[in-house]
Amino acid sequence: SSRKFLESVMDSGILSILCQQNKGKEDVQKHLNLLKERVLRVFKTLKVPSGKLSNLNNVLRFQVAQKQMLEMNETALVQLQEEINEAEKSAERTEETILRLQHDIQVLKIQLEEEEKKARKLFREGDTKELHLPELPKCSLQAPTLQEEILMVENQKGLLEDMNTIQQSADMRNMLTF
């Protein structure tokens, strides 16, 4: 029955082709009939398992299920690609941050080395264990002392009372305690 069905399908195909042909119908018909005979000979040698039409229905259901699975996989693939893109962007931002922090660390290391050199020069101890501090400017030694400035004030008694009040205040005691 399958062979007869295939033969009838091929005959209808040949007829549809011949209807469209205007010239050389005989040659085309001979050629198509030869092809049909060859195909039918091959079909006769094929062994087809006997089956029921319910298997064809199962194939259709299986095909629909596979299409649904393919659509779900494509959706999951798109989501996965988006997540990968986000992860790449995040990794790039993290890498940029790391590079920036490494640069900042290098700059701070250089500054620290410079400060350490300055500190060594400033606090260099010699054989006598004396600190070699820079000299004070001469103008600071010639500046008037606090006592001389107080003597220049006209209202010295009021100034002394204000200073006494400041020294006895709670804030001053807290600062001295600290």
UniProtKB/TrEMBL annotation:
InterPro entries: CAD_CENP-Q (IPR025212). GO terms for cellular component: chromosome, centromeric region; nucleus. The keyword Cytoplasm does not apply. Residues 70-125 form a coiled coil. It is found in: Chromosome, Centromere; Nucleus. Pfam families: CENP-Q. Keywords: Centromere, Chromosome, Coiled coil, Nucleus. The keyword Lipid metabolism does not apply. PANTHER family: CENTROMERE PROTEIN Q. Belongs to the CENP-Q/OKP1 family. This is Centromere protein Q. It comes from Phasianus colchicus (Common pheasant).
